[in-house]
Design a protein that fits this description.
Elements: H1 7-27, H2 33-54, E1 67-70, E2 76-79, H3 95-114
Antiparallel strand pairs: 1-2
Length: 118
C-alpha cells in the first residue's frame, strides 16, 4: 500500500503517524495538552515547509472525479468519488476541515505569487 505513495503522500502519512503518537501520549497522560499542541503545531510547520519546498500542486483534469461548483448564493460545493484514490483522503474530513484546507491552499498560492523565489 505505502510503496505506491509519492513524496507528498509519504510526508502526509508521516505527519499523520506523528500526530497520532502525540495524541496517544497526551491521552495516556504522558504529556500535557499544551505540550501536545506545541508538538502537533511543530509537525504541521514541518509539513508546510516540505509542501512549500516541493511546490506540489494538485492538478485537476477534465476526467477528474473532484468537481467544484459555485452555488447561486456564491458558496462552493465539492463532490468527489469516494473510491478515487486521488481524493479518498477527503472522505473522513468534516466540512470545516475541508474549508480550512481550501483556505490555506488559497493563501499559500497567494503567498507564492508574492514570493516566487521560494
Amino acid at each position: 500500500m505505502y510503496e505506491d505513495l509519492d513524496c507528498f503522500e509519504k510526508a502526509l502519512a508521516h505527519f499523520g503517524t506523528r500526530t497520532d503518537i502525540i495524541i496517544a501520549l497526551e491521552m495516556g497522560d504522558k504529556i500535557d495538552s499544551e505540550t501536545a499542541y506545541k508538538r502537533i503545531k511543530e509537525e504541521l510547520k514541518e509539513l508546510k515547509k516540505f509542501v512549500r519546498s516541493t511546490k506540489r500542486r494538485i492538478v485537476m483534469t477534465a476526467n477528474d472525479s473532484l468537481k467544484i461548483s459555485q452555488n447561486e448564493d456564491g458558496s462552493f460545493t465539492m463532490d468527489w468519488d469516494p473510491q478515487d484514490s486521488k481524493w479518498s483522503w477527503l472522505n473522513g474530513l468534516t466540512q470545516k476541515e475541508i474549508q480550512v484546507i481550501v483556505q490555506q491552499a488559497v493563501q499559500d498560492y497567494l503567498d507564492d505569487l508574492k514570493s516566487p523565489e521560494l
